Amino acid sequence: MNFLRILIFVVLVVVSSCQQIPDDPNVVVEKFLNEVNEHLAVLYNNQIEYNWREEVTDPKQLPENIEDPIFETMDYIKGVASIVSKLKRAKVTNANLKRQLDQIPEPGYDALDDSEKMDLHEIIGNMSEIYKNVGLCSFRDRNNCTLRLIPEVQEIIDDTMNVEELKYYWLEWRDKTGSKSKYAFSKFVELYKKTAALNGFLKPSDFWLRDIEGESGEVIATLDKVMLILRPLFLQFHAFVRSALRLKYGPDLIRFNEPYPQHLAEKFIGSSYRDMNGDWTIDLPYPLVGLVNITAGLIAKDITTPYGLIETAARFYTSIGMPSIPQTFWIQSARPKFDVDERLMTCWSKTWKYYSSDKINLSFCPMADEERYTNMFEAVSDYYYFKSYRNQPTLFQEEPLPNFGEAIGKAMTLSATSPRFLEKIGMGGPVYSSYEGRINRLYLLGLRNVFLIPIFYVLDKYRVDVLDGRIENLDNCEFWKLTEKFTGAKPPVQRSHDQFDAPSKLLIEVDDNYSSPTMSIILQFQIFKRLCEKTGQYRRGDDAYPLDLCDLSGHKEIGPLVLNAMSLGSSKSWKEVLFTLTGDNQLDVSGFLEFFKPLYGWLQSINQLNKEEIGWVELNQCV
Ligand SMILES: *[C@@H]1O[C@H](CO)[C@@H](O)[C@H](O)[C@H]1NC(C)=O
Ligand SMILES: *[C@@H]1O[C@H](CO)[C@@H](O)[C@H](O)[C@H]1NC(C)=O
Ligand SMILES: *[C@@H]1O[C@H](CO)[C@@H](O)[C@H](O)[C@H]1NC(C)=O
Ligand SMILES: *[C@@H]1O[C@H](CO)[C@@H](O)[C@H](O)[C@H]1NC(C)=O
Ligand SMILES: *[C@@H]1O[C@H](CO)[C@@H](O)[C@H](O)[C@H]1NC(C)=O
Asked: Which of 116, 126, 129, 186 should be mutated for ligand 2, with most atoms under 8 A from CB?
């Protein structure tokens, strides 16, 4: 029936062009788009309901044999693709219509022929199988080869102090996965290049980065610049971590003026992510001052349920001028997530939207602690996002850049975890706003953010260079060149050209990209800085109002500003949406730097005091 409609439409277009009726292409396109918007809303809603059911239902209770609606959506997109490309060539003058046409998803892999598509699915399945289920042999009992990377090996790495054991698992993981997946990955690259061309992209990298508007060269140039501007902060932090590692492991392992060994650095940096409720062992710069313990604060305030968390978040959002969330929302639309990972790695609250409707759901993790607290602020931010753009056509009911909504939500969590805000709501003391308290918090957040950006950057840069043919044969040494240069890490043992270490970081998603998540981190701090400036809670050069202490609560002017930007959906480019929100029309690293400025100063002076070497000579231990 659907297909019939398309057919009729094509016939109409063809007939009208044959008869040379001076049909206004705007009218034709508008009619077509109305149809697409209406249809996609139905398809997308089916998809969301399907995913929602999986999220909140015991798998045993799920109805069997229900096909994932994604296939129907893909069929539809593929079905309209040729009309879309035809209409894109028509002289459409209305910018809004033109943009809607551009927002219609490409058929992507569906453009491949059937046998290629089957190959692709097999490749993706094989790689996912390799990375998810490969059995690693135990260091202590080499005959026991049943260990998975997550959770078994991850737990061993977290707990062991044995350097040989850490090195062993680093190698074992790469040996067991790299060579096995290399062939599949190279076939994936070939099919990906073909897919890009079939979807009308000049370069494979343009397809890879298609959701970030602008040509891939421009995106990469922007990220190159980000890396350059972050470099001084990164170098100081790197030097500090290297010297901390040297204290732990000695100068033979952690050599002067050299990159640090990746396996040891990862364990160190990874400790900043460990469960804050439990056995958390990170050496803070000022251990006596410590960090505010939000979990303890929640208990003290008798906030012990997810309902309490949403109330707390909702109070914050209404205080900044957002509309209140109806009382009925919790009862009618919130459900606990069914499959709760006992280690809490994936237990997050999530907001679910319905297209073209007021309806929104929330699935929540049934606990109330620090991570769930910040996560709830993000989920409620999404709630406002979904509400505010619901009047846009379906094609515009999206964020203008992948992870843009996350940047806004996370900017709000910077305020929700600001020592000033926590003190205000009775969950922290004034000591956390002291210099020492601030450095502790910035140190933790710095470990989580400053080291992540170069790793993401290298992963996407390597990928883009492989796709565009600047790196041939999945050269492993090119990967290590980038890794050494940008992350200051070296492999624990010499590597060779034909090994394949890049995907050991990508884990299982062969087509996951890291450029928009990198941009999202920068945007988070950029948005935070601008909102804080606007409310006078951050004043450049004024020690009483540094960015890291900024508390937005109570500033009613924020809500309308944020809602206004949110309500644009993807009807404007991310740069235009950003402009509405911040007055900037491009990515700006200064918010990130300003936020971490006290930490930067602290790192500089401690490195100077201890006469630490900054930077490293490149070793290129890959031949
Ligand atoms: C293999 O090692 C893992 C992790 O140390 C352990 O849980 C498991 O019981 C061991 N299996 C055998 C058969 O020894
Ligand atoms: C996928 O794995 C199967 C079984 O191991 C193998 O026969 C097949 O060749 C693999 N396919 C690709 C494309 O690597
Ligand atoms: C990155 O990949 C995901 C799926 O893996 C896709 O949804 C997203 O649009 C991609 N982002 C960009 C910038 O291409
Ligand atoms: C934070 O407080 C909780 C609850 O009192 C406690 O279980 C946890 O150990 C504390 N975390 C740290 C890092 O002190
Ligand atoms: C919201 O939850 C209700 C009740 O579980 C469900 O019927 C509906 O499909 C959900 N909607 C979305 C958008 O997930």
From this structure: 126
215 falls in which pLDDT band (50, 70, 90)?
confident
Q: What would the mean pLDDT of 329-352 be, rounded to a whole number? A: 84
Q: How far from the centroid of its chain's Cα atoms is residue 410's Cα?
A: 11
Which residues are near ligand 1 (CB < 6 Å)? 138, 144, 146-147, 152
Confidence of residue 345 (pLDDT cuts 50, 70, 90): low
pLDDT band at 506 (very low <50, low <70, confident <90, very high): low
Supply the pLDDT for residue 193. Answer: 97
The whole-number pLDDT of residue 516 equals 92
Across the strands, what pairs with 352? 361
Alpha-carbon distance 585 to 222, whole Å? 13
Token pair belonging to 128: 């996912």
Q: What is the mean pLDDT of residues 96-107?
A: 95
Pairing outcome for strands 360-364 and 334-336 = parallel
Question: Is residue 258 within 8 Å of 490, Cβ to Cβ?
Answer: yes
CA–CA separation, 607 vs 616, rounded Å? 15
User: How far is residue 336's CA from residue 526's CA, in Å, rounded to a whole number?
Assistant: 33
Evaluate if pTM is beyond 0.85.
yes
User: CB–CB of 47/73 below 8 Å?
Assistant: yes
* pLDDT tens per residue across span 21-79: 457 889 999 999 999 999 999 999 999 999 999 999 988 888 877 888 999 999 999 99
Cβ–Cβ under 8 Å, residues 589 and 229? yes
Instruction: Tell me the best of 203, 516, 523 to mutate to test the pocket of ligand 3, counting ligand atoms within 8 Å of each CB and taking the most.
Output: 516
Q: How many angstroms does the Cα of residue 276 sit away from the middle of ligand 4? A: 7
The whole-angstrom separation of Cα 123 and Cα 135 is 19
Examine residue 151 and say whether the peptide bond preceding it is cis (omega within 30 degrees of 0).
yes
**What is the residue extent of each domain of the chain?**
3-105
Helix or strand holding residue 490 (H, E)? strand 489-490
Instruction: Tell me which residue has its CA closest to atom 2 in ligand 3.
Output: 512
Contact 139, 123 (CB under 8 A): no
Other Cβ atoms within 10 Å of 217 Cβ, number: 14
- Reading phi first (left if > 0) and then psi (alpha if -120 to 50, else beta), residue 191 is in alpha
Alpha helices by DSSP H, listed for 134-271, are 154-159, 163-198, 204-208, 216-249, 262-270
Taking the CA atoms of residue 380, residue 554, residue 569 and residue 585 in that order, the dihedral angle to the nearest 10 degrees is -130
Split at pLDDT 50, 70, 90, the class of 168 is very high
Q: What angle do CA 445, 446, 448 make, to 5 degrees?
A: 65
Q: What is the mean pLDDT of the chain?
A: 91
Q: What is the pLDDT, as a whole number, of residue 13?
A: 46
Q: How many angstroms does the Cα of residue 597 sit away from the middle of ligand 4? A: 28
